[in-house]
Amino acid sequence: MHKTLGIQGMMCGHCAAHVARALNAIPGVQARVDLARKVALVEAASEVPDEVLKQAVLEAGYEVISIQ
To answer: How far is the first Cα of the chain from the last one, in angstroms, to the nearest whole number?
Structure first.
């Protein structure tokens, strides 16, 4: 599974690290955040529901505005 999450509210490296930590805490997820593009690139061996990804980002204090 590969998904790109558009994230609103990230302004600095600390923000990006916070989002990456939140997503990587989901079992089986490997996430990398591109601060310049304001996206998180998510990979997992099995399907992870969009709502699970959104909730992790929301709990970190940011908002998912798109998932592709």
So the answer is: 11
CB 10 within 8 A of CB 35: yes
Residue pointed to by tokens 């690139």 = 41
Q: Which fold has domain 2-67?
A: Alpha-Beta Plaits (3.30.70)
Q: What is the spatial distance between Cα 54 and Cα 65, in angstroms, rounded to a whole number?
A: 9
pTM: 0.93
Tokens of 50: 């969009």
3-class secondary-structure state, position 25: coil
Confidence tier at 42 by pLDDT (50, 70, 90): very high
